[in-house]
Design brief:
Blueprint (H helix, E strand, L loop, with lengths): L8 H10 L7 E5 L11 E10 L5 E9 L3 H6 L2 H22 L15 E5 L6 E5 L7 E2 L8 H24 L1 H10 L3 H5 L3 H18 L5 H21 L7 E3 L8 E5 L5 E6 L6 E3 L1 H10 L4 H4 L2 H19 L3 H4 L2 H11 L1 H15 L8 H4 L7 H6 L4 H17 L6
Antiparallel strand pairs: 1-2, 2-3, 3-5, 4-5, 6-8, 7-10, 8-9
Protein name: CHK kinase-like domain-containing protein
Pfam families: EcKL
InterPro entries: CHK_kinase-like, EcKL, Kinase-like_dom_sf
């Protein structure tokens, strides 16, 4: 733990926004950061502000961008942080206002409060409430989430998507502006050699580890992901007739859970709105499902989609709209094969990253130099190949048996 004097001046200046400039009235304590690899485009610093007179505490999570030129050259760092700043300062207040007067159970409140931001180049930063101090925790990323957890996740995404559909109906011109007011960070990343190499290398590795456990005819169909993961991803990310505001980055580390005394999920929060965009709700749902689930979960896809759509319908009704007009269930099911490909491509890469042993974990500071991103370091990192094989087998067979594979 560090004292007041150890706080970089730039962070200290941002913290002043939280306490209306009266930072000298607070003792500032810095806690241990996230583990390596838990953040992708930046770092988290956990801070407690304790008022000197009253002892009252504010527990904060300061999310700050990587500032190194060699990292920013190869990754959409600034774009992603500006997206999240836009979400919290411009978009979320408008969405939240739509919920006024709506019964609490239909409200989307599943995100941390944002208390301050800084958009200065190389010093992009958000100050958020520290959810860990509120009893929320990340799920062990090496373990698959179960059906009950996905029921709750799908309900929460239903509320977010319903709120955005209501915004689309009530403020159609403003909804269309989301595209021009944000940067499509995912699509921009696919133009970079680093992500292109990552998608290809991970698909090749997936094919290799499955050769001994999956029939050749299945693997032959899977080869399209080796040949053109980027093209498949971009096609899935394209606009749909029934588009919503997407969370955009839905892997399990971007969901924090609170549990009751019996170990059941009592609440959850979505974090990291850096990759927000507009697209099919299937993009969010397939991403969270395929990058965190197992066969047990995939077998319940229809059940989960019905739970999602019921929650969407209930929320839209409370907001004064009809889901049969804004997102019919059959459209949702029909869109799955096209737009689930985003989740497929990302799951292949993310499960590999999840399985890397902690002592082998890399972040962008390890693999980026001035000229290129060294994917060989990532490729050579030791990981739990057996569990990865099992996860990929579950995914690939699910896609094949349900005719969800691309093509």
């Amino acid at each position: 733990m560090q004292s007041n004097k150890a706080i970089p001046q730039k962070i200290r200046d941002t913290l002043k926004q939280v306490v209306n400039g009266a930072i000298d009235n607070y003792e500032v304590r810095v806690h241990d950061p996230n583990q390596k690899g838990e953040g992708y485009l930046g770092q988290m610093v956990f801070i407690t502000l304790q008022e000197k007179g009253t002892g009252k505490e504010l527990n904060l999570a300061v999310k700050q961008a990587f500032s190194e030129d060699n990292i920013r050259k190869h990754n959409p760092i600034r774009d992603a942080f500006l997206n999240e700043i836009y979400f919290y300062t411009e978009l979320w207040p408008k969405l939240s206002k739509l919920q006024e007067g709506v019964p609490e159970k239909y409200n989307f409140h599943h995100l941390p409060k944002c208390l301050a931001v800084n958009s200065e180049d190389k010093y992009e930063r958000l100050v958020l409430e520290n959810l860990k101090q509120e009893g929320f925790a990340m799920h062990d990323k090496t373990k698959a989430l179960d059906v009950k957890m996905y029921e709750e996740i799908f309900k929460v995404y239903a509320k977010l998507h319903a709120l955005s559909l209501a915004y689309k109906q009530s403020h159609p011109e403003d909804f269309l502006k989301i595209d021009s007011d944000t940067i499509p960070a995912w699509l921009e990343s696919t133009k970079k050699k680093a992500l292109q190499d990552s998608f290809r290398i991970n698909a090749e590795n997936c094919l290799k580890v499955l050769e001994s456990v999956v029939d050749a005819k299945v693997l032959e169909k899977f080869k399209c992901y080796v040949n053109d993961s980027v093209g498949i991803f971009r096609e899935a990310q394209c606009k749909a007739r029934y588009s919503v505001l997407l969370h955009g980055d839905c892997w399990s580390n971007n969901v924090m859970f609170k549990y009751d005394s019996l170990g059941n999920v009592s609440d959850l929060k979505l974090i990291d709105f850096q990759l927000i965009t507009v697209g099919s709700p299937v993009c969010d749902l397939s991403y969270t499902l395929y990058s965190g689930g197992s066969k047990e979960v995939f077998d319940q896809l229809d059940h989960l989609l019905r739970i999602y759509h019921q929650a969407l319908s209930d929320t839209l009704r409370a907001l004064g709209y009809d889901s049969n007009q804004l997102l019919p269930f059959q459209v949702l099911k029909g869109d799955w094969k096209v737009h689930c490909q985003k989740g497929v491509v990302l799951a292949i890469a993310i499960w590999k990253g999840k399985m890397i042993y902690q002592e082998e974990v890399l972040d962008l500071t390890d693999i980026c130099d001035e000229d290129e991103v060294d994917m060989e370091k990532y490729l050579n990192a030791k990981y739990d190949e057996e569990t990865y094989r099992e996860r990929m087998k579950d995914l690939v067979l699910h896609l094949y048996e349900n005719d969800y594979m691309y093509g």
